[in-house]
Amino acid sequence: MNINPKIFYQKRINLRLLFILFLIIFTQTSCKQPQKNKSIILASKGKIDSLDPAQANKLLAIQLISSLGDPLYSIDSQGNLEPRLAKGEPIISKDGLTISIPLKENVRFHDGTIFDSYAMAFSLKRFIKIGTLNYIIDGRIRTIETPSKFLIRLKLNRPSSSIKGLLTSINITPVSPSYYSQHETKFLNDNFIGTGPYKLSSYSPEKQVLVPFEDYWDGKANNYGITYISFNTSTSLFSAIKTGQVDVLLSNSIEDGQRLALHRLSKQGLLIESQGPATQIGYIAFRTNSNLLQNKLTREALKFSIDRELISKQVSYGLREPLRSLTPPLLGLKVNPPWPAYNPKLSSSLLKEAGFCNNKKLTIPLTFRSNVPADKLLALTWKEQINRDLSNCLNISLNGVESTTVYKQLGEGAYEAVILGWTGDYPDPYAFLSPLLDCKKIKEDFCEEGEAVIGGTFWANNKLQKALQNSEELLGQERLKELHKVEVLAANGAAILPIWLEKPRAWAQPNLSTPQFDGSGRLLLNKIYKKDE
Amino acid sequence: MNRARALLNYTLTRLALAPIMLWLISSLVFLLLRVAPGDPVDAILGNRADSSARAALREKLGLNVPLVNQYLNYLNGLIHGDLGDSLNNQEPVIQLIAKTLPASLELAFVALIIASIIGIAVGLTGIAKPEGKTDLAGRLFGIGTYALPPFWAAMIFQLFFCVILGWLPVGGRFPPTLMQPQGSGFLIIDSIRTGDLIALQGSIKHLLLPASTLGILLSGVFSRSIRINLEKTLGTNYVEAAKSRGINEYQIIFSHALPNALLPVLTIAGLTIASLIGGALLIEVTFSWPGIALGLQEAISQRDYPMVQGIVVVISSLVVMISLIVDLLIAFIDPRIKY
């Protein structure tokens, strides 16, 4: 049956009128411009589920808490310890077992109460008791004493030079004891009462509003506040900064192609780009107790087989720096890199010596975290590079696994070779070396218990272990030399292959000042301002 | 047995089966989550911390308790309406769901309206001249929207309307510079209730693109269903009889044929809205829409067992409820249906 279209369209006139009416109403309300909000809109990837420093274990939460509170110390852009809530350098006793920290006296919390040694002790004890990452204390602190109102004393179980770095950790940011009295043994996720340059005005996991704290001890923030919003995809973040919907974009999660596009926009003057000190490393862990990689010669060969420059160029367009050590450069170890440069000839001869090449190819199953795009690209590029340079001797087979599954199965010895990343819990070489190399129980060259097992290498070395322990009892250059020794021994063991360094980056609209980072790679939100205000 | 009694029996049977179905679903989810490799400790600590620190965190999260006890505690909580606390931030799951569910419902509801309008319009336009150019275009539209991958379509829409034209925001649910109206969690309703036109405009602007994308993608199913059912209905004897009595075409279609053709569409709409509550994941992810599907995806990646279990139970309950309502509605509308 055919229907006369005229009948249809006559009735549409009413609908059209309704639609026009809706448009009029909609555009009329559009004419009422919202009151100009002067706060800076900062976007990043991922939600913030908790603002409790004892709970914070994600980089974004740590970034935000660093604007709402102050740690005892921070690391400046030159890598030096800078007192924040502390009045001066920590005073370490001759036996290295007592650390006294004088505190600033003119500091107030956002609720008006005074920051003192009791508040600091309260926050430290709270973190030790309920902190999600409280393992970073590693049994080093025996007691926390408050000999006077503005002096805190830590008694240690063993000397620990790296504890200075621990004092910069955002996880031990002091919180107001009076406000947190009901939350001494549980988290307070949706509020934060600290001493920082901003107060929290409103909170939801997707959006946090920060307003300047008028009584901040270190001068008022340079802007009218920060509105932090989260997006879920790299594409949304990229689009938001490109179209001017956000003022600042901060993200390590943005994909490398889009990172390059933003970098190019910055070169054209359409955005302002800044980068902080490298805090994250990418590496490959080899399971040394496997039949395949038990032979040190084989691992040595792999050490020479990777062309980091090519990988950096292909995967990140050169934005990730090739790395031949396990610690970021800012952390003091300014010596020759312990890991060797790319040398396919040497790699090939080592593989021949190990009984491979020609008719017998070594096939390495390489696992990457399937939810980390850069890892996949790294794996693919290395595979192709091996095909190009060492196809007679070596082959790589790829296997993508979701990251949580990888972490679960690492310690069970499920992966021969796996691509991983590491960010130190605090800015100190020890926070990079110990979690990757430490071993509590060594048998021959294998680790039976400790971080090396959790990290999937199962590799241990008595000399390295001794050097790592010695470094905790030394200070200054002596300590750095000992830590360098640790790296050299790790490079000789060839159980870990550092690949690249990742620097935090921020992009801002051209009407804003250049974003600045501190030495820990955190964006200094209070330093950003709009040039036209 | 008269019809009303049969309907009552059917309703009671469905209601009695609902708890059994929910128990089966929740038990299955409980089991599958535990079988999946990796637990919340692995998700939180990653490849850091030694075995003692991991064991301490596992104990703190209650994961050291035998699995049977965990299951019994979970069932006990479920019976008492307690979905437990999130392992991620120790907050009650029910509160976390209450915060995200309105966003998903709002998106689903508006998307369904858009899908219905477009679907019915395309279906009707097609049937106005069967096998004509408009009909062909409508049918292609129906197949095309059904076949389009949602994430791809969402990204293309985002690129076009947000980046190139700059008309609509890239993502989120509300303008970041405005204060979100408080109340039910349904931002459009809350904005109207508080008389805040700026907030209303902001909410609509943020909702427009995700809801339209979802609506357009779903409209194909509606348009095809309308077209097929209407074509079938227009060929029935009662329509011919109406025509022979001289009733005009408009009245035949809208008063006689369309209500009958809409019955299967109602079933599709019911199923669609039920699946949308938990299934608009790719749209929620692409547009950073803070809904329950996004929450579920995050909870799975973080192995937040209580959160995943809670969301699945809530979504399942809604699906059961909506399908029951749709069945009853159809039975109420169509006297031919027997139970």
Give the overall shape of chain B, derived from the CA principal axes.
globular
**So, the CATH homologous superfamily of the largest domain in chain A?**
Dipeptide-binding Protein, Domain 3
Find the CATH topology of the largest domain in chain B. MetI-like fold
Q: Largest chain-chain contact?
A: A-B, 71 and 73 residues
The computed structural class of chain A is alpha+beta
| Biggest beta sheet attributes of chain A | 7 strands, mixed
Largest sheet of chain B: none
Radius of gyration of chain B: 24 Å
Helicity of chain B, as a percent range: over 70%
Task: Tally the helices of chain B.
Answer: 14
- The CATH topology of the largest domain in chain A corresponds to Dipeptide-binding Protein, domain 3
Indicate the CATH architecture of the largest domain in chain A.
Roll
Which helices and strands occur, and which strands form pairs?
The complex is a heterodimer of chains A (533) and B (339).
Chain A: H1 5-31, E1 40-45, H2 59-68, E2 73-75, E3 81-83, E4 91-92, E5 98-102, H3 117-130, E6 141-148, E7 151-156, H4 163-166, E8 198-204, E9 207-212, E10 226-231, H5 234-242, E11 248-250, H6 256-267, E12 272-275, E13 280-286, H7 296-305, H8 308-316, E14 321-322, H9 344-353, E15 362-369, H10 373-389, E16 394-401, H11 403-410, E17 417-423, H12 430-437, E18 441-443, E19 446-449, H13 451-454, H14 462-471, H15 476-493, E20 496-502, E21 505-508
Parallel strand pairs in A: 1-10, 1-11, 15-16, 15-17
Antiparallel strand pairs in A: 2-3, 4-5, 5-7, 6-7, 8-9, 9-10, 11-21, 12-21, 13-17, 13-20, 14-20, 18-19
Helix pairs in contact in A: 7-9, 8-10, 12-14, 14-15
Chain B: H1 3-35, H2 40-45, H3 51-60, H4 67-79, H5 93-128, H6 133-147, H7 150-164, H8 187-194, H9 197-234, H10 237-244, H11 249-279, H12 281-286, H13 292-301, H14 305-333
Helix pairs in contact in B: 1-14, 5-6, 5-9, 5-11, 5-14, 6-9, 7-9, 8-9, 9-11, 11-14, 13-14
